[in-house]
Amino acid sequence: MAKPLRKDAQRNRDLLVAAARELFAERGLDVPLEEIARRAGVSIGTLYNRFPARADLIGAVFADRVAATRALAEQALAMPGAWDGLVHFLEGVCAMQAADLGYNALASGRGPYAAADDADLAEGYALMRRIVARAQESGELRPDVTLEDMVFVIWGHARTVEATATIAPRLWRRHLALLLDGLRTPEPSPLPEPSLTPEQARRAMSPQSPCRPDDAASPV
């Protein structure tokens, strides 16, 4: 069990997380750590004492997103309409990305990150798979769609947010609506390529281990 921080140390940590959250949201994940320390009103040494690596700070800033995503998934599964639940979940995740350039980059697999507990992530993915399966069982989501296909929704949305955030900040909703129409039945066209496997999706989303072209074409 982690030892509780002294009051002054906890205060400095809270100030750093708050400053980083603001700057990451405004400008993305590449904000200089020195600037974060200045906004928090502490020394760069204090920042490194609390967060030895950028990934540690990013992990602390975005830890609440795991809980928020799980809450969205639970809301989606509680909705009477399976398709409405899927739309609610995707709109909620995309809205979080649109509101925060740092989270937008993180969600699309860019930037170092000290990951949340593996059990929490696994439970979140299980909820998402239920959302997809439920929409397919209702006949509203095309049957060949997998959870891993949702990676493309996140990637496409991330680029839309980056390109239009200061020009038309709500344009992402149009982009998402077009993507959702491609996922919905009836009578979808056959897809020309198979879905990513869960392992391929994990590798593709990891900035540390990008797929080579031959990797993407080969089963794992």
TrEMBL record:
Keywords: DNA-binding, Transcription, Transcription regulation. It comes from the Bacteria. Residues 184-220 are annotated as: Disordered. InterPro entries: Homeodomain-like_sf, HTH-type_TetR-like_transc_reg, HTH_TetR, Tet_transcr_reg_TetR-rel_C_sf, TetR_SbtR-like_C. Gene3D superfamilies: Tetracycline Repressor, domain 2. GO terms for molecular function: DNA-binding transcription factor activity; transcription cis-regulatory region binding. Residues 32-51 bind DNA. Residues 10-69 form the HTH tetR-type domain. Pfam families: TetR_C_43, TetR_N. PANTHER family: HTH-TYPE TRANSCRIPTIONAL REGULATOR BETI, HTH-TYPE TRANSCRIPTIONAL REGULATOR RUTR. This is TetR family transcriptional regulator. It comes from Planobispora longispora.
